[in-house]
Specification:
It is a single chain. The protein has six helices and five strands, in the order αβββααββααα. The chain is α+β, with helices and mostly antiparallel strands. The chain has a three-stranded antiparallel beta sheet with strand order 2-1-3, with helices on one face.
């Protein structure tokens, strides 16, 4: 073997492509664009409807093939806000709540980085705790994770996630 340094070759590559949002999301956006209606997929077994639509029920893991119109009104039960520097949303974040501009601490497992007006940090942490208790610690969810164990690395990942969830639940409020 020779001790040659690796060669570096620079070139400009043009990679035109189209991104597919997937069958469910593509239909959702097409319905919204073409017919101005909000559609969901509904599980034929448990009756739960999903917006945005998904191909498999998160409760009973059945394929979701039934489409139902759910708009225009409804109740928001969860949301995610992402603030990318340089965007209008990032510039206007302080209009809607207290925005902590510390990118190193932005994580589900640390304190909230955005607290909407009308809520407190403590209330947001209480909501997170309640969500973890009501979702991740259900027997159905625990068994679904256990059924997916096929390798040692998967066991390690599940243990790490489980320890993190327990730390969150046992943390002082």
């Amino acid at each position: 073997m020779t001790d040659q340094k690796p060669r570096r070759i620079s070139y400009h590559a043009v990679l035109p492509f189209r991104y597919s949002a997937g069958r469910a999301a593509s239909r959702f956006f097409a319905e919204l664009r073409d017919h101005k209606r909000i559609m969901a997929t509904r599980c034929s077994k448990c009756g739960k409807a999903y917006v945005p639509p998904r191909p498999v029920c998160g409760e009973c893991f059945m394929p979701l093939e039934e489409w139902v119109e759910v708009g225009p009104g409804g109740t928001l039960v969860g949301f995610t806000v992402v603030y990318f520097p340089g965007t209008e949303l990032y510039r206007s974040a302080h209009q809607y709540g207290m925005f902590k501009n510390d990118w190193k601490s932005m994580s589900l497992f640390v304190e909230p980085c955005f607290v909407p007006y009308g809520l407190t940090k403590e209330k947001m942490l209480a909501y997170r705790r309640k969500a973890i208790l009501q979702f991740y610690l259900r027997p159905r969810i625990i068994f679904s994770y256990l059924r997916r164990i096929t390798t040692i690395s998967r066991i390690k990942a599940l243990l790490k996630g489980g320890i993190t969830i327990l730390k969150l639940l046992l943390a002082k409020r």
